[in-house]
Amino acid sequence: MTLDKRTLVLGVAAAAAVAAAVSVTVLGHGNGPSKQRKSVTAYIQRVNTIQNRMHSSLTRVLLAYRDFSGRGGARAHAGPELAAAAVTLQRLDRRLAAVPAPQDARTLRRRLLTLVSEQAAITREVLRMATFAPRFAVVLDGARTANARLGRALKGVVVPTPHALRGTKKQVLAAQRAYQAKANAAADAQAAAIDVYDAEIAAVLRRLGKLQPPPVLKPSYEAQIRAFHAIRANGAALATELRRADRSNVPTAGRRFQLASRIAQSTAAQRAEIVAVKAYNTRARAVGTASARVQEELAKLQRSLP
Known about the structure:
The chain has about 300 residues and is mainly alpha-helical.
């Protein structure tokens, strides 16, 4: 499950909406502005002044989103840009909150603060994505490298093939002992390769434990961790069975080892990922809704103020 690019683009639109929302002024009334209209206009002008002073910073918010969600994936500097964008929006939120509003503009002020606050929150979440995703990918690449190494190691083990024996009793016994020695050596080599692989997966788990996934990527992260723990447990069980004199349980242990790697792609894991992405989409779209509510209030003031 991956993030919907269209959702990330909503972040760009929402950042633009912050700037646009605070740039609108209540137009003058045909019969001359009333005291209420003058006070609301004065409030909006103060808001505009703040926005104009932060114009270059708000422009960088847009650039940060575009760098993260643009074609070809996030750029290397998208993370620092998003961090700066989050600070910018927090500063805008504080400055707007410090501006008192007249009675008639209090709903507008509340909606403006909600808009900027929600945009700052989604920016912080996108920042966490930009920070976490590449590190997560590097750790998973390490696991894939370990998988490939295990595959090569197991492929390189020569497992003797059972065949009919002919000859004297002494010759048959000697051949049986030779076959058993080769089978034991092959099983020991396979077990040793799995031990090495298990140690590499343990290192992967330690590296994953240092990461902090954002909510939208937490199900994928947790599914991978469950898979790696299952892989280690079943790998250890398979190695144990390979070292036994009676290896009749090796096929069953081998199947469990293979199935453990599919936990991260299970239907349950995919459902959890879908739920997380939908929740993120809802949070991202809430910014657009907040922007629309600001515009609605401005239109209402324009109509209702004498």
